Amino acid sequence: MSDVFISYSRKDKAFVEHLYQTLKEQGCETWVDWHAIEWTEDWWQAIQRGIEGTNTFVFVLSPNSVESAVCRDEINHAVKHNKRLIPIVYQPVEAQQVHEALGKLNWLFFCDADRFVEMFGELVRSIDMDLEYVKGHTRLLEKAIEWNQQTRNESFLLRGVDLQTAEAWLVKGASKQPQPTQLQGEYISASRAAEIQRQQAEARRQQVFMAGVGMFAFLAFGAAAVAVQQRQVAERRGINAELNAQSLTAINLLESNLGIEALVEGLKAGQKLKSATQEVEPETAMRVVSALRQIVYSVHEQNRLEGHGNTIESVSFSPDGKTIATGSWDNTVKLWNLKGEELKTLKGHRDVVRSVSFSPDGKTIATGSEDATIKLWNLEGKELKTLKGHGSHILCVSFSPDGKTIVTGSGDRTAKLWNLEGKELKTLKGHDVFVASVSFSPDGKTIVTGSGDTTAKLWNLEGKELKTLKGHRSAVKSVNFSPDGKTIATGSEDYTAKLWNLEGKELKTLKGHSGYITSVSFSPDGKTIATGSWDDTVKLWNLEGKELKTLNGHLESVESVSFSPDGKTLATGSWDNTVKLWNLEGKELKKLKGYGSTTASFSPDGKTIATAGEPYTAKLWNLDGKELKKLNGRSLVVQSIHFSPDGKTIAAEDGDFTVKLWNSEGKELRILKGHRAFVSSVNFSPDGKTIATGSGDETVKLWNLEGKELKTLKAHSISLAVSFSPDGRSIATGLLDGTVKLWNLEGQELNTFKAHLERVTSLSFSPDGKKIATGSEDNTIKLWNLEGQELRTLKGHREQVNSVSFSPDGKTIATGSADKTVKLWNLEGQELRTLKGHREQVNSVSFSPDHNQLLLASVTSDGEGILWNLDINDLQQHGCEWLNDYLKHNLNGKPYQNLCTGSAAVSPWEQAMGWVRERLSRS
């Protein structure tokens, strides 16, 4: 493995020798071919291996190197394997002669010998950037290539820790450069698949072995049940291993920005979970469900248009939103419906189709091509007219709002106005180089043009130049008017978009892309701007220039963005030959909006949520996030609120050392008075007849529903958490001094154990009453038995743990933390999933008691509550609805249609048993 590979022309050898020596002095291992050896197979293989085994590919730009066929082959090989490319300029070159992969990067200029030291410093910084990730890229690439060259022999695949490391690297690669290659992805996926097969094979070996043991036992002792039991164990291990791997793959795909593929994989895992005939471990089931939940609520890509054979250069919605037109480097235009079905292919251009535009009535399509013509078509694909007059390729075309005029921009430095008969009306002259983009104002009186000369210009219909917009530092590739006509957006090769008023004053600069901005578009309501870039992303912005969202998923540069007329869908075309349809609304998490909440609790039937913490008010919500009731108090800033077991009474601390009781209609019933300091925790006994309250006065009090004080337990420290055991016979309290105390209902202290180094903020009994989970300001969660023996310590939160909650089956623990996350754990202390989405610290988490619809509520100090859906049936329904069009109409989606038809996959064991039953029924 080398640090740097230098590609250069032999005519520039003197400069490269100086560069090589300086790199060597810096400790960089550099691969350079010093000899102009004849072209032989062995020589080219050596070059290929040198490129494959290097971390960074440096290309020395000069007139000699850009004309060299060998240099171009070297670049192509580096691009094929997604190598980090750094172009350095030794001698000035014409930009259009440079390889397209280098053209979109920042160049380092070594032309001035006096600045060599300065520029060399920039080069070293570029080489060292994110070096560990890049080394991982090289290492995995070499392994993947070797595997591929050895006919994908399984003995070359990754295993164990190496596989886990590679999968973690693949996840990181989603947001890094250079991106993982397809071969690397296939190599890691094949390794994971082989790992699953090995586990299943091991399970089968155990099955065969134990079957033999069982037969021996049967012959010797008549105990055939042993073999059956061991076979079931082996099968159970196999299905759990497969489900765990599948959910991990789904998340890896999501984090690699392959949303549709991730959702398909998540649905496959969900279907397999539901149809599993062997027992699935609780943590495995939770991994599958939480992975599917994360995908369902994260994915924005809803469909994909695949059919062009080359780059998609332009995308446009029809005015009624029912049709999408796409223009491509394959010289064709295609029409699609919103379901993703290809309707028509328009053939007639002899070169790349650069631009497509619908007429305002939607009956005509205008297309501009590098063959220097504009063509008009009807929706049946019939060519109506060809417009000729430009002296070079057509880069852009647009209709006027009344549909009577067409404006076009060209490489001949002009824009032209035409009528629908193909007559040239006006020529707009004034730009110094090509006109890349044109747009009419909504009133049709003004035209804006963007050019490679770094400016945009405003014109009237007579061809008079009205204003020049100056401010970009490179070519303006896209221009667009806002729907109200008051603002102009421009996108440039200087990586920025800008907003201007009609006087030419710059209003805002949108910064965030790391590549040329090729397309800019306003949403129909004018409140959002979409930009597409050579950094392979689409970004959404508001009018203040704030970045709202980044849409990742295209594998190569984005060339065109277009909003649907209703603003709900964004279509984007890319060099990866696809158009992606993004649903901008997405599947929203259900949220509970308030001022500030510290606690949440489900009603016993799981249909209502109570939250408190907002001054003077507690609130009741339904599962759709709709506010049902307000429970008013004097200064209700509380740590705890709870429903009685029958759901008819709600108890919460009030701010004057009291506890208030309401009925479910929000009517105040009574006030419990007796504490001499703030009340920090309240809880009902399982039979609903007793209420326990913990206070800053270092006591815990027991009350009946009439408000009579039954018992006072002296804790000798402030009680921050109090909970009844499920059988109602004991009470646990978590204290400020880090201890936990257990009491019986007579007030007798049963046990005290030092739980944490810092205060205990929350505690919860497991549903079977055998364990207690505690959360603390020491950032940990601990599991205990009732004798005070520590069973597990759960570590993972970066800040204090504010809340802990057991799932209804007692097999999963949810925790909320000041680090703004919710985490799910199994009873072995293994972290199953981190739920992210909150902007402030999580104060409370609570599982719904409904086994049929598993939900988790979490609330934060900024008043936002989130309902996390963990119901596999509901999640699968949402996932299937989201992918409906893709699965029905996309060729890559159709093989997975059975995921959503209700037909579950049948396991081989089920097939075999069905065959046995059938044979027995016949005999």
From TrEMBL:
Alphabetically sorted, this entry's keywords are: Membrane, Repeat, Transmembrane, Transmembrane helix, WD repeat
Renumbered ranges of WD repeats: 305-346, 346-387, 387-428, 428-469, 469-510, 510-551, 551-592, 631-663, 672-713, 721-753, 753-794, 794-835, 835-871
From which organism does this entry originate? Leptolyngbya boryana NIES-2135
For this protein, the record's Gene3D superfamilies field holds:
Toll/interleukin-1 receptor homology (TIR) domain (3.40.50.10140), YVTN repeat-like/Quinoprotein amine dehydrogenase (2.130.10.10)
TM spans (from-to): 208-228
Pfam family, any one: WD40
Look up keyword Transcription regulation and say if it applies: no
User: In its UniProt entry, what is this protein called?
Assistant: TIR domain-containing protein
Record bears the keyword Protease: no
Taxonomic superkingdom = Bacteria
Which PANTHER family does the entry link to?
A: WD REPEAT DOMAIN 5B (PTHR22847:SF637), WD40 REPEAT PROTEIN (PTHR22847)
Q: Which residues form the TIR domain?
A: 1-131
Q: Name one GO biological process term.
A: signal transduction
What InterPro entries does the entry give? TIR_dom, Toll_tir_struct_dom_sf, WD40/YVTN_repeat-like_dom_sf, WD40_PAC1, WD40_repeat_CS, WD40_repeat_dom_sf, WD40_rpt
UniProt xrefs under SMART domains? TIR, WD40
